[in-house]
C-alpha cells in the first residue's frame, strides 16, 4: 500500500478494526439493529474501526457550507509514477484516482470520525459463500463512463484479469496472486494461453452484464475491503492502451483527465456523465483540480504559509518542513495546518539477496536516524521513532526494541565498523537512488553517505529525476541494494503487511516488479505467513505481532525508521478540508472553493 506519499510508501486505503470480517461485522450490526441498537455503531477493537453500511445510497450527504465552482490547486514535491488503476499502489496515486475511478466498494471517513465501508459501483458489500472462497457483486443501474458508454460487469472482470499482468504492468497490489483461484498460475490477458495468460480465467465469471463472481483459492474474508482498490475499477478491454492507459484512464467518477504531463502536472475537469445518485461518497464541488508535481518542497510550503492570490485555493499533502515551523506555530498559518497519526511505518528495505546478514545488522547499528531526519526537515509533526515493522495503530501491536536504539540517535559508527571487520566486509558498498531534482532528497542522500562512510561502509548514490525514482525502487534488477520507502496498512491488520511485502514467493511471480522489496525468501517465514493467514481473523492479531519480532531477530530485512504522522497546509479559501489518514492527507473528494 500504501503510504503517505510524502514518504513514498507503497499502498494504503482505509482500514478495518477489531479483527472481524465485513460479513461478521454486518451480522453483528444487524443483530444490534434488530435489538433496537444503531446499525452505525462501530464494533469495539484496537486501531481504526470501520462501520459496515451496506445500505448507503447516493448522492453523498452535502458538506455544510459547500459551494460550487472554482479551481483547487494541489502542490507537491512528489511525482507519481503512474495513474494506471491496475498499477496504482502509492497512496497519493490512490487518493487522486478516487476522483476519477470508482470501485466495487469504497471507504469514507465521515464527520463522526469513523470510517464507513459502503457499496460504490456494487449494490451491496458482496455476497459470499460459507468459507469466503466465492464472492458475488451486482452492479448498480445507470453507471456510465465519461464517454457515455455503460459500465458492465465484463469491464470489472477484465480489470481483475489485467491485475495479474504484473510483468507488463508492474507495481500494483498482489493480493490476487495469493488469494484468487489459480492466482499463482494465471499471467493476465496479454500473454498467450500457452504462457499461462489469455482472456479465459477461472477466477472471475460474469453471468450477465450486471454480475461479477470472484473465486478464491483460499478463504478471503476481507475481500470487500480489497474491493476498494482501483484494481477493481472497470476497464473496457477495447479501451485498454496497456502501458499508456495510465496517461488517460477512462473515468467513471466525478472528474476526468483533461491534460497530463508525467511528473509535472495533471488537470482534472468535471465528468458530466457521472451520476451523483449512484455515488454515496464523492462530491463534484470544484470545477477543476490542478495537480502540480515536482515542486520545490520549501517554496511550495512558503507559498501556502503566505496565502496570497491563487495559493488561497491551494493545498498540499506534503509534510511541513521543520525549518518552517517558526513561521507557523502560534501564528495564523497554524489554523491552516492539520496534523494527526498516520498508518505507515517508514523503512530502509535491505536487499537480502545482496547484503549479508552480518552487514544488515551493522547497518542497523550505524544508522544515523537523527541526522537523516534533520536533513529531511522532519519534526514531531511528521514522525515518531519506530522499532517495529507493524505500524503502532495496528490491532494487536506489540512494541519491542531489539537493537536498543529506540529508533533514534545517530548510530554507533565505531561498533558498526568492528562488526564489518569481524565479518570481513569492511568497505561494503551500500547503493541507493535519489532524486537529484529535489534539494531535500539530495541533502538526505549526502548526509546518509557521510555517516555510513564514517562507519566503514562504501556508498554509491545514483542520481535521477524524481519521476523515475519510484520505478527504480520497484525494479528488482536495479543495482541499488537499499530502498528508503515505507508501508501503510491497507486495512488495520498484519494481513495487509506480511503477505504483501515479505512473502518470498512473490519474487518469482513478479519478475519485473518488487512487491517484496527486501527480497526475503525464507521457508519458515513463508510458512508462518500461510499459517497465520488461515487463522480466524480475531486470532491473527497476536500472531502477526510475534512474526514481526521473530523476523527482525532472525533476518533483519528492514531498518524500521519511523511511524509516520500526517500533516499538511492549505489555503484560506479552501473548504471541506479534512485529514484522512488513509489518504495520506486530505480527502480530495470533499474540497470546495469559498466564493
From TrEMBL:
Residues 117-502 form the Solute-binding protein family domain. InterPro entries: Peptide/Ni-bd, SBP_5, SBP_5_dom. GO terms for cellular component: ATP-binding cassette (ABC) transporter complex; periplasmic space. GO terms for biological process: peptide transport. Residues 32-41 have a biased composition (Low complexity). Pfam families: SBP_bac_5. Residues 16-48 are annotated as: Disordered. GO terms for molecular function: peptide transmembrane transporter activity. This is Peptide/nickel transport system substrate-binding protein. It comes from Actinopolymorpha rutila.
Amino acid at each position: 500500500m500504501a503510504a503517505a506519499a510524502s514518504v513514498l510508501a507503497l499502498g494504503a486505503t482505509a482500514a478495518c478494526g477489531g479483527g472481524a470480517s465485513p460479513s461478521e461485522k454486518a451480522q453483528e450490526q444487524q443483530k444490534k439493529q434488530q435489538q433496537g441498537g444503531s446499525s452505525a455503531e462501530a464494533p469495539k477493537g484496537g486501531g481504526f474501526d470501520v462501520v459496515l453500511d451496506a445500505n448507503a445510497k447516493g448522492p453523498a450527504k452535502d458538506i455544510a457550507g459547500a459551494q460550487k465552482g472554482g479551481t483547487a490547486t494541489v502542490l507537491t514535491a512528489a511525482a507519481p509514477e503512474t495513474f494506471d488503476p491496475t498499477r496504482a499502489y502509492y497512496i497519493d496515486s490512490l487518493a487522486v484516482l478516487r476522483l476519477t475511478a470508482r470501485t466495487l466498494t469504497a471507504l469514507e471517513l465521515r464527520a463522526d470520525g469513523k470510517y464507513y465501508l459502503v457499496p460504490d459501483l456494487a449494490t451491496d458489500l458482496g455476497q459470499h459463500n460459507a468459507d469466503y472462497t466465492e464472492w458475488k457483486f451486482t452492479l448498480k443501474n445507470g453507471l456510465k463512463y465519461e464517454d457515455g458508454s455503460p459500465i458492465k460487469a465484463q469491464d470489472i472482470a477484465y480489470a481483475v484479469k489485467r491485475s495479474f499482468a504484473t510483468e507488463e504492468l508492474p507495481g500494483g497490489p498482489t493480493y490476487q496472486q495469493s488469494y484468487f483461484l489459480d492466482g499463482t498460475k494465471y499471467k493476465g490477458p496479454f500473454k498467450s494461453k500457452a504462457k499461462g495468460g489469455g482472456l479465459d480465467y477461472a477466477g472471475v465469471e460474469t453471468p450477465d452484464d450486471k454480475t461479477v463472481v470472484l473465486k478464491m483459492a483460499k478463504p478471503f474474508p476481507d475481500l470487500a475491503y480489497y474491493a476498494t482498490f482501483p484494481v477493481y475499477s472497470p476497464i473496457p478491454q477495447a479501451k485498454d492502451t496497456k502501458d499508456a492507459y495510465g496517461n488517460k484512464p477512462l473515468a467513471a467518477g466525478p472528474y476526468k483527465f483533461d491534460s497530463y504531463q508525467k511528473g509535472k502536472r495533471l488537470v482534472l475537469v468535471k465528468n458530466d456523465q457521472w451520476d451523483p445518485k449512484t455515488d454515496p461518497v464523492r462530491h463534484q464541488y470544484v470545477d477543476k483540480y490542478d495537480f502540480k508535481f515536482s515542486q520545490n518542497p520549501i517554496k511550495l510550503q512558503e507559498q501556502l504559509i503566505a496565502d496570497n492570490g491563487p495559493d488561497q485555493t491551494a493545498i498540499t499533502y506534503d509534510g511541513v518542513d521543520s525549518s518552517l515551523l517558526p513561521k507557523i506555530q502560534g501564528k495564523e498559518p497554524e489554523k491552516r495546518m492539520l496534523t494527526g497519526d498516520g498508518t505507515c511505518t517508514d523503512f530502509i528495505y535491505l536487499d537480502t539477496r545482496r547484503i549479508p546478514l552480518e552487514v544488515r545488522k551493522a547497518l542497523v547499528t550505524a544508522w544515523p536516524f537523527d541526522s537523516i531526519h534533520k536533513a529531511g526537515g522532519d519534526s514531531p509533526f511528521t514522525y515518531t521513532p519506530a522499532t517495529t515493522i507493524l505500524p503502532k495503530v495496528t490491532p494487536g501491536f506489540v512494541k519491542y526494541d531489539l537493537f536498543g536504539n529506540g529508533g533514534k540517535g545517530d548510530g554507533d559508527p565505531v561498533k558498526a565498523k568492528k562488526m564489518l571487520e569481524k565479518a570481513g566486509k569492511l568497505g561494503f558498498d551500500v547503493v541507493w537512488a535519489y532524486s537529484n531534482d529535489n534539494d531535500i532528497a539530495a541533502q538526505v542522500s549526502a548526509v546518509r553517505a557521510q555517516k555510513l562512510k564514517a562507519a566503514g561502509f562504501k556508498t554509491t548514490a545514483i542520481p535521477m529525476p524524481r519521476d523515475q525514482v519510484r520505478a527504480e525502487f520497484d525494479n528488482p534488477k536495479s543495482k541499488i541494494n537499499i530502498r528508503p520507502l515505507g508501508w501503510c496498512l491497507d486495512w488495520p491488520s498484519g494481513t495487509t503487511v506480511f503477505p504483501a511485502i515479505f512473502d518470498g514467493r512473490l519474487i518469482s511471480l513478479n519478475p519485473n516488479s518488487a512487491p517484496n522489496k527486501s527480497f526475503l525468501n525464507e521457508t519458515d517465514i513463508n510458512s508462518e505467513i500461510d499459517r497465520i493467514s488461515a487463522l480466524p481473523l480475531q486470532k491473527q492479531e497476536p500472531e502477526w505481532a510475534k512474526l514481526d519480532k521473530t523476523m527482525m531477530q532472525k533476518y533483519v530485512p528492514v531498518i524500521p525508521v519511523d511511524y509516520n504522522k500526517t500533516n499538511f497546509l492549505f489555503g484560506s479559501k479552501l473548504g471541506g478540508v479534512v485529514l484522512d489518514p488513509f489518504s495520506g492527507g486530505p480527502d480530495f473528494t470533499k474540497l470546495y472553493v469559498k466564493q
